[in-house]
Amino acid sequence: MLEIRNLHVRVEEREILKGVNLVLPAGEVHAIMGRNGSGKSTLSYVLAGKEDYEVTGGEILLNGENILEMEPNERAVAGLFLAFQYPVEVPGVATMTFLKAAINAQRKARGEGEISTPDFMRAVKEAGAQLNIDSEMLKRPLNVGFSGGEKKRAEILQMALLKPTLCVLDETDSGLDIDALQIVSKGVNALRSPERSMLVITHYQRLLNHIVPDVVHVFSDGRVVESGGKDLALQLEAKGYADYEKDVA
Fold it and tell me: Where is the ABC transporter domain (predicted)?
């Protein structure tokens, strides 16, 4: 599914990623944990194709294709979805309008016809029910005035409708209370499948109580310094990242 080979990235002449190697097989959920500044979010932005991140070496293969040669919209069509830590507000664009436009843009790029209104409404209703999203929320401008929990639920709704093969969740637990965390996690878990892989980026083990990973990777100083099973997250929660920082120093 996803293979990252010796990835080097810099921003404004500063090297942030210093040789990332990571393999995420189809159907698996992997978590990336690490301190602020370790390069976790940078990796998510590079995967999505955000500007101002200069790749100076390495490859990122999604289903065998080098996505570094693709524009962001092409990566989305290829099956990549990024859930932001801080979803952007889009004044003047109703959430329903945005969702339908996103689905139809994806369908057009794949040579498919536009989704019918009844099929679209049915899909939104089914996906929204699991996320406690009501019709009033969908009528509001995208993310404008939304609580942290509403913004994250809206993103998981997008993910459910677009059906990506690779989901990158950048600190999805940020700004969520316990109830919202459970709702969002339930929505994410409902999308787990043998054809879909997920990369979950987080500081804290609490998210991984709800979205249980197959593998945990520890990021430090722009690279993966250790990988292990879900118990590795518990060790990090107990001991912190100090030992990894010493190794880097």
Answer: 2-246
CA nearest neighbour of 161 among 81, 85, 90, 88:
81
What is the biggest distance separating any 2 CA atoms in the chain, rounded to whole angstroms?
A: 59
Each residue's pLDDT tens digit, 196-247: 999 999 887 888 989 999 999 999 999 999 999 989 988 888 888 877 765 5
236 touches 32 (CB < 8 A) = no
Smallest CA-to-CA distance from 170 within 183, 196, 192, 188 is with: 188
Q: Would the CA dihedral through 54, 59, 63, 65 be positive or negative?
A: positive
The residue type of 14 is R
* Neighbour count for residue 9 (Cβ, 10 Å): 22
- At 68-113, the pLDDT tens digits run 999 999 999 999 999 988 888 999 999 999 999 999 999 998 899 9
What does DSSP say about strands 80-83 and 166-170: parallel, antiparallel, or unpaired? parallel
- Cβ atoms 172, 161 nearer than 8 A: no
Q: How many helices (H) and strands (E) does the chain have?
A: 10, 12
Q: Which two tokens stand for residue 104?
A: 């139809």
Instruction: Map out the domains of the chain as residue ranges.
Output: 2-87+161-248
For the 2-87+161-248 domain, the top CATH level (class) is alpha beta
41, HSE (Cβ side, Cα atoms, 13 Å): 14
- Cα 107 to its chain centre, rounded Å, is 21
Q: CA 10 to CA 212: how far, in whole Å? A: 31
> What is the distance between the alpha carbons of residues 24 and 19, in angstroms, rounded to a whole number?
16
The angle subtended at Cα 190 by Cα 187 and Cα 194, nearest 5°, is 140
Q: What is the residue type of 128?
A: G
Contact 62, 80 (CB under 8 A): yes
